[in-house]
Amino acid sequence: MPDDERDGARGALSDERVSPPASFVEQANVAEPDVREAFDADWPECWARAADLLDWDSDYDRVLGGGGPPFRWFEGGSLNASANCLDRHLDERKNQVALQWEGRLGESRTYSYLDLHREVNEFAAALRDLGVEEDDVVTLYLPVVPELPIAMLACARIGAPHSVVFAGFSADALATRMDAADSEYLVTCDGYYRRGAPIHQKNKADNAAIERDGDVEATVVVDRLGGETPLGEGEHDYDDLVTEHRGADVEPVPRAASDQLFLIYTSGTTGEPTGVRHTTGGYLAHAAWTSHAVLDLRPEDTHWCSADIGWITGHTYTVYGPLALGATTMLYEGTPDHPEKDRVWDLIERNAVDVFYTAPTAVRAFMKWGEEHPEAHDLSSLRLLGTVGEPINPRAWKWYHDHIGDGECPVVDTWWQTETGGMMVSTLPGVDDMKPGSAGRRLPGVGAEVVDADGEPVEPGESGYLVLTRPWPGMPLSMAENEGWFADHGPVRPSLERFDWAYFTEDGATVDEDGYVTLLGRVDDVVNVAGHRFGTMEIESVLADVEGVAEAAVVSGPDDTKGEAVYAYVSAAGGVDEERLRAAVNDAVEDAIGGIAAPDVVVFTPDLPKTRSGKVMRRLLEAVTHDDDLGDTSALRNPEVVGELESALDGLR
Ligand code: WT7
């Protein structure tokens, strides 16, 4: 297949450069051509520009305290995130729409800044009444309904870190995360609709409670389905609570800049999800600054970030970034092809969306559905387009640029991670030329290099490992406090000795003469399915427990739309029916993690490829899955298995 035809993580680099139109540059929030140099010359003080976008209860003494870890961004400063997202906007724009919600069944709800402020206050008062104190972790297990950002901001108001668990995760996954966070408070809903069918979220929450060792002090239930939900002891109806606290005023609790704002779980190399704790000052400054400089947001804009709020992207670019800047943020509960394949364009037209931020997976799906869908709508309100979560191949990039942006909107391909809190590598739309397929340069103030195994910079065009070489405001507490490196070390570790401090991102990359970074995918055992991250070990450990599975290995495989897919190689115990086992494997992953992590392809094999010492040779499985050159197979104990794997795969594709 020619490279350009190939959709997916390994998109080809193109030589093309696209300049942002002069009309965009003229109005851009950040347009100084030498902004990166200016930040470097004044590092770390340059980051005051991010902090200046916020209101502080008490000013910070130093931009970056601690010469090494523990790092303290905006040391000595205090602020409240909810006050920054709500209260400070009331004087100027209390009647402006803060949050526009579009529901799955075609309903919509509109909250002005005043409305949102009122309901956040009422729910904050309710949480306090239920016993939530400062620093108690409140778990939020909700789909994309207005009550989710309301609960997040209510938690922030009283200094209680929230832990949002993606609604599609299973009862097991919820229980694990509540236990790990020692969380005694839960906000969930009765259920919600997914492709027309109701999902009973409350049942999942009940099952999680049964599984948990910990106590649940209180559970709040949002009514989304409209039926009667019997409430047990310690369970409260959301609407009743808000009504009981009508008109309540809750003074925002001043938090130190390095106090925790929230906690979010992500997948790494180990079988257990990792809790990433983000700070109030550094994170919020990073969120606001990147929304300002990269998304070019301003108060009069309507911004739509299509990610579910259950992931970091939704935290930073649906909730905190846009609201900190006083913009209108749009929330969409549904799927992009329901009721019709023009749903997204219809929503953009009806809400006059200025900035649209989505995943390459979605762009590839739009492309497949055809340009007649966007063409049927007036998309002229759009000023800027963005992508995140996985590499975007040049063909999809160009389609997005031409058919959605009418060739006039810059497209920002933003690289970052749950751990970074906000964007780290991207073009600045008011400054940089774009190179389709490449994320762009490190953002101002960010230290990023592509290095080889010895930690030396690679030659332009050579592949290496992406390393962040300076701390940044959005760094998580877990990293700021660590001595030196952070994480959950994957199978690859470039030497980082050369740096005073550095963080290895677990991403492979190349860099060109102009400093443009092109991402090549994770080098650890993480699968990135449609921009969602799962550990192969996490899925493998579920499969290993399925009755009838003798052995299983999970690797990332190619997928035309989703970029990557979950491939499970399973050897069945004698006499087990493969079709039944396939269903059992899917059910097990759905129960333990959630449907989105279920293997896309299950390959049955009499044996897994193993080294002489009996270790599963993952590299070989990956090569077979990608139909790549197998490389050196002399270490294999059972070379005959390769042919069997190849023919099993041929039968499936
Ligand atoms: C991993 C982080 C950042 C929010 C969404 C995912 C991949 C992210 C890009 C991009 C190529 C990207 C990386 C990264 N990734 N953005 N623009 N180009 N790859 O957050 O779940 O923490 O995943 O997503 O592999 O390490 P996450």
UniProtKB/TrEMBL annotation:
Family according to the record: Belongs to the ATP-dependent AMP-binding enzyme family.
One family name in Pfam for this protein: AMP-binding_C
Domain AMP-binding enzyme C-terminal, chain residue ranges per copy: 538-615
Biased amino acid composition, Basic and acidic residues: 7-18
InterPro entries: Ac_CoA_lig, ACAS_N, AMP-bd_C, AMP-bd_C_sf, AMP-dep_synth/lig_dom, ANL_N_sf
Residue segments, region Disordered: 1-27
Domain AMP-dependent synthetase/ligase: 87-471
Enzyme Commission number(s): 6.2.1.1
Root EC class: ligase
Single GO term (MF): ATP binding
Protein's UniProt name: Acetate--CoA ligase
Occurrences of domain Acetyl-coenzyme A synthetase N-terminal (ranges): 37-85
Keywords carried by this UniProt record: ATP-binding, Ligase, Nucleotide-binding
Keyword field contains Nucleotide-binding: yes
Biological process, per Gene Ontology: acetyl-CoA biosynthetic process from acetate
